User: Which sequence fits this backbone?
């Protein structure tokens, strides 16, 4: 940040000492963050990789076991079942949430400013609610003999369902509060992206008599390509990592029907004496997630390129 | 609908029509065209439906808090309580254990939020404005921590805090999550956009690096600090799994942990549980409503990135 540096030589001479001062200053300012991140994020990450090659518990000496933990995870059908369940959960939540958010955003950008801000605030309020409170509320709604949902379907003549007790319904019953909690931010990002699309495109389309669907299909969606891709990948990563809702609502039951991948790992953490298995599973999931998101990214990107 | 295209662009510039008559014409058109009325009604209907669906579960929680124990889930089903009674809300707010939980969680959240703003904004300033040796190595390292999934390091973080003898203290809730790469990134983006001419003037006046940070950057940082602050407060208040793993003394219970434990231990007192949940959700909703303008504007910025 030298102010009087008329020549290159002069600059070198003035920058150098100030840069050295900056370095010590910078590390003083960075110190708290670097210390905290090193102790509570970077070191645990290194230790996780390390422990995945050991048989380690809180009570015994650790023993190097090579790839055994990873092998145990990879041959364990219940791990793969949890991953498949996680993908099912993604299919139940992400497309639904994206379409719904898109429709809400379309509506919110076509109404008056006051109505629009009421819509934005109401759709975002669920996002500030904790998973525990959402779980408690939805468990009451899903109650078998006196819950709101069964009373509602009784009106249409359908018999009571054990929404959280029946393996056929349980995962879907958890997907609903997940969508409810997560829609706010997706919708607001879409609204911002829609407002960024130049108005002139729509004016031109309207003059040529394009209807709502044509304007959406040929202007809105292509213009929002990057944002939609971003939301698809973050939605996927967020959704497959969900475990608080099933942890509180069902604990993973009935019959593991709601044991999403992270809950599967968490239940192993709590249940196993040796932690190698759960850490190896968590690392594998991290790798699997990373590759799946990059594959989604590639596929969607290349499709759009062909367009 | 090609016929209904607005004729206004075709009115000659400087024509005799003034704004008022245009508006009158527009109003007349709105009444005349049934399609437009229909469109208006459809939009109004869906707007109300969205607001209703988004807020209904919360309303249901609050309504259930007014019900007596047997009414919350009852056969035959009862939508509204027989008698609206404040008893559950009075009882839960008179419960010292619950109040202490609210206070301890709120106090912890305030300290956590303040600390988070302090350490992350200092780091953001250093990354945005200072040239220092090792920056090219440190910045990617910090960014990388953003992509480590929580579950991967959950157990090893637990081992770390156990070894540091932090278990069952408030420190274990406040300190580990305080530094966050996402917050540093966000504040740094903001600082990068502050014109350096401001700084140069301050340097000429003899301000050091600290002076520039404290006198120029901090006063300008209200907007990013609100966002970082709300996000941190919310994360602390809504945290559940970490407190369950690290806090065992009931007098240090955090609010989500308290509610989950309440549900496990006193499962018959549903009205009380719903009232407690409503009281735990309310502070965070109020804070959001106070700052909603800034938060929504920030999401706009995030979308533009």
Assistant:
């Amino acid at each position: 940040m030298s102010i009087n540096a008329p020549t290159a030589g002069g600059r070198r001479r003035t920058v150098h000492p100030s840069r050295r001062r900056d370095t010590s200053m910078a590390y003083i300012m960075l110190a708290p963050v670097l210390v905290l991140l090193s102790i509570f994020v970077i070191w645990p990450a290194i230790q996780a990789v390390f422990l995945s090659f050991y048989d380690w518990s809180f009570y015994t000496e650790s023993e190097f076991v090579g790839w055994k933990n990873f092998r145990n995870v990879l041959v364990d059908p219940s791990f793969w079942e949890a991953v498949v369940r996680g993908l099912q959960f993604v299919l139940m939540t992400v497309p639904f949430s994206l379409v719904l958010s898109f429709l809400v955003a379309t509506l919110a950008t076509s109404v008056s400013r006051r109505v629009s801000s009421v819509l934005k605030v109401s759709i975002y309020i669920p996002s500030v609610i904790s998973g525990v409170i959402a779980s408690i509320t939805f468990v009451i709604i899903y109650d078998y003999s006196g819950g709101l949902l069964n009373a509602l379907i009784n009106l249409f003549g359908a018999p009571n369902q054990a929404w959280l007790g029946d393996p056929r319904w349980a995962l879907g019953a958890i997907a609903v509060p997940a969508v409810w909690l997560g829609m706010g931010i997706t919708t607001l990002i879409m609204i911002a992206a829609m407002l960024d699309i130049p108005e002139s495109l729509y004016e031109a389309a309207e003059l040529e008599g394009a209807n709502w669907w044509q304007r959406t299909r040929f202007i809105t969606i292509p213009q929002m390509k990057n944002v939609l891709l971003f939301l698809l990948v973050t939605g996927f990563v967020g959704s497959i990592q969900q475990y608080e809702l099933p942890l509180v609502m069902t604990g993973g039951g009935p019959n593991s029907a709601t044991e999403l991948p992270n809950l599967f790992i968490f239940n192993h953490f709590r249940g196993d004496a040796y932690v190698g298995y759960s850490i190896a599973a968590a690392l594998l999931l991290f790798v699997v997630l990373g590759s799946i998101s990059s594959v989604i990214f590639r596929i969607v990107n290349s499709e759009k390129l062909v367009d | 609908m090609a016929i209904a295209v607005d004729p206004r662009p075709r009115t000659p510039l400087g024509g005799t029509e003034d704004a008022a008559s245009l508006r009158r014409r527009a109003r007349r058109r709105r009444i005349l065209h049934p399609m437009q009325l229909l469109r208006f009604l459809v939009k109004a209907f869906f707007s109300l439906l969205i607001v209703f669906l988004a807020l209904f579960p919360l309303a249901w929680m609050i309504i259930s808090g007014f019900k007596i124990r047997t009414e919350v889930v009852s056969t035959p089903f009862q939508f509204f309580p027989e008698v609206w009674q404040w008893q559950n809300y009075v009882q839960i707010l008179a419960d010292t254990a619950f109040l202490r939980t609210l206070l301890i969680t709120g106090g912890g959240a305030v300290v956590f939020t303040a600390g988070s703003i302090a350490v992350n904004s200092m780091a953001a300033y250093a990354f945005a404005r200072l040239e220092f040796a090792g920056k090219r190595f440190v910045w990617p390292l910090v960014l990388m921590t953003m992509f480590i999934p929580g579950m991967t390091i959950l157990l090893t973080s637990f081992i770390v805090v156990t070894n540091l003898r932090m278990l069952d203290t408030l420190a274990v809730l406040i300190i580990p999550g305080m530094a966050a790469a996402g917050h540093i990134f966000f504040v740094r983006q903001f600082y990068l956009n502050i014109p350096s001419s401001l700084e140069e003037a301050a340097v000429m006046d003899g301000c050091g690096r600290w002076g520039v940070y404290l006198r120029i950057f901090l006063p300008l940082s209200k907007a990013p600090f609100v966002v970082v602050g709300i996000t941190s407060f919310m994360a602390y208040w809504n945290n559940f799994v970490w407190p369950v793993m690290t806090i065992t003394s009931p007098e240090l219970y955090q609010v989500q942990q308290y509610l989950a434990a309440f549900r496990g231990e006193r499962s018959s007192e549903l009205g009380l549980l719903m009232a407690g949940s409503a009281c735990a959700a309310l502070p965070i909703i109020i804070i959001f409503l106070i700052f909603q303008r800034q938060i929504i504007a920030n999401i706009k910025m995030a979308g533009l990135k």
Observations:
- Chain B touches chain A through 95 residues (CB under 8 Å).
- Chain B has two domains: 19-52, 95-304.
- The CA atoms of residues 11 and 260 of chain B lie 66 Å apart.
